[in-house]
Amino acid sequence: MDKVQVRSLSAICVTIVALVMLAFYNWTVIQDQIFYTVVSLQETHQPGSGARYVEQPKTAQELIQRLRNTTRSIGLGTTYGMNMSATELEDWQAANPCLSRSELIPMYAERKVAKSLPPNPVWDELFAEYSRYHRVCTKSIRDPKGYFVKKDDSSPCKFLVADVAFGTGLGNKMFTLASGILYAIMTQRVLLVPTTNLVPEFTCEPFPGSSWRLDPETFPTPPEQFVTGDGSWILDAEFSDRVDRAMKREPKVNGTSLGPLAYAVGVTRHEWQPKGRFYCDTEQRAYSQSIWMYTSGCIYTIPKLFAIPSFRPVLEGLFPDRMAMTRVVRSLLLPDNTVWDRVRRIHHVYLSGADRQLGLQVRYRDGREMYNKMNDVVNKRITDCALENGLLPRLTSELNSKLLAATNTSAPNPVVKVFIASLFPGVHESLSKLYVLKPTVSGEDVGLVQITQDETQEFSLEADRQAFTEVILLSLSDHLMVTPMSTFGGLAQSFGALTPWFIDYRSESSTSCERSPTVEVCNQFSIKEYSCPHDSDVNGQRIDQVVDYIKDCPVIDHDLGIQLITDFES
Ligand SMILES: Nc1nc2c(ncn2[C@@H]2O[C@H](COP(=O)(O)OP(=O)(O)O)[C@@H](O)[C@H]2O)c(=O)[nH]1
Ligand SMILES: *[C@@H]1O[C@H](CO)[C@@H](O)[C@H](O)[C@H]1NC(C)=O
Ligand SMILES: *[C@@H]1O[C@H](CO)[C@@H](O)[C@H](O)[C@H]1NC(C)=O
Ligand SMILES: *[C@@H]1O[C@H](CO)[C@@H](O)[C@H](O)[C@H]1NC(C)=O
Ligand SMILES: *[C@@H]1O[C@H](CO)[C@@H](O)[C@H](O)[C@H]1NC(C)=O
């Protein structure tokens, strides 16, 4: 990891912490080396039923069926059963209230211009079945820590601890976790989320009768960044070595019978996401025989899951429109009641009743200095973009003739509400100067709303809650204009199922903005070729040449990444 990379990546995910991490980097490497020599001594262990190799399902229905079979095999005849009783469910819902689960989707449907995403019954069925699996597995092993420490593998259930790199903002957290969530579902692993990353503190518990919360104070997670971890985990380098050695011993087995290579594997990071070899069939076959996995980082990687050949049939069946992120966040990452209460109040007083809502997300990642330098040019581009694309009405210097002529106007002017999310006041001031002083040609009245302007990015539960509130309010827009590379705006786009316009932030540019080719966001800093030494059918090939709906991200957004092209546009 050289300095240039650290700087450019820190601009994306870990704004402040990266410098501290650089200082600790050498220390971490030393830790890892000590750790590897310890774990190599215990390479063999006897597999239980959870560690048996099973091929990836070929269809979404087969995945659902497998989850159901596992749930049945461990749930039937137990006190907790396969399903919860109605009273159990009511009690759980009373203890884990989540108003947004029933109230958010109808608000998207009420938008007057934006299209609603049609329902996806296969995804809903999978989510329900996975929730049941989660509950029954969690009940059956009782205590995740005890199960882990004993290296137990008597249950057919497997587990994923899905974490997020320390010190990241809301958007990066949610995209990273969403990637872990979809991976857990695809690989039939019980999803557990360390509460230190705070996501379980501002989202709803997603699985009825169960909990995804993992207390990292008591649960032994692997060594992460500069935090000391537990040595029971095999990390990437050692895992790849074991795969290589096993494949050398039996080159013909094609990964199918590698046998369990490790009880617990921590997927360490390269550029804040799993390394290229993670996205290979041979490695995935090997991972599938480990009982525990741990992932972390700060980058969205769902596009790369679509690149894994053995995952693709199920993912294509589940998301024929590729609206994967929207389904995941709307089912599993909903705002808890504290956040939802803010959304409802602010929406009610400032945004409801509009004929159209425009969302504007304006981010100056490097803070005040960048703001001072770019505020004028960014504001001009926002206005130009809004006018060129009909997102805001044009101004006139003449007074509204209709208003003046009529002494009794029965029909009030249509209202366009602009919700602005920014750490700075610049764009609100700039638009106020236009729309407060002058009427519009169309006779539409334009209202501007910005609820915070904190200037600096904070790292706290309160900062995440407020950021999430503003993301949801942005997502309720009919049209959305966002800052390139920003996962904050990207999260609003995913919740709202919106195809955004990227404001042009390049200093030398003659365009004001550009429409995104997709609702999906960019998998930033992604390696664009398969690096799968044991899968000669794809190794070295460009992913976009193997999978036709995966493309380079647009240059205006982020030129070092790939993304899914959606069949839905709004
Ligand atoms: N409330 C609020 N917070 C913001 C805004 N812009 C940035 N932030 C803060 O800065 C963080 C930005 O990190 P992140 O969401 O990962 O977005 P990214 O860095 O642009 O990809 C957020 O989580 C907030 O804490 C904003 O418009 N409103
Ligand atoms: C589920 O179990 C049934 C009955 O035991 C079996 O016929 C079926 O093949 C299993 N399905 C899958 C996908 O494992
Ligand atoms: C559990 O609930 C599912 C979905 O409602 C149903 O199909 C299944 O038959 C139930 N199983 C048992 C054992 O009650
Ligand atoms: C590897 O195994 C898979 C799954 O059984 C099979 O579909 C594929 O054809 C095999 N590839 C080779 C090169 O043997
Ligand atoms: C204004 O017009 C509306 C509808 O045309 C009518 O119902 C109302 O009585 C009028 N009000 C006045 C004060 O003239």
UniProtKB/TrEMBL annotation:
Class in the EC hierarchy, top level: transferase
InterPro entries: XG_FTase (IPR004938)
Any matching Pfam family: XG_FTase
EC number, UniProt record: 2.4.1.-
Major localization class: Golgi
GO MF annotation list: galactoside 2-alpha-L-fucosyltransferase activity
GO cellular component, one term: Golgi cisterna membrane
Subcellular location(s) per record: Golgi apparatus, Golgi stack membrane
Family under the similarity heading: Belongs to the glycosyltransferase 37 family.
Reported function: May be involved in cell wall biosynthesis.
PANTHER family: FUCOSYLTRANSFERASE, FUCOSYLTRANSFERASE 2-RELATED
Protein name as catalogued: Fucosyltransferase
Organism: Marchantia polymorpha (Common liverwort)
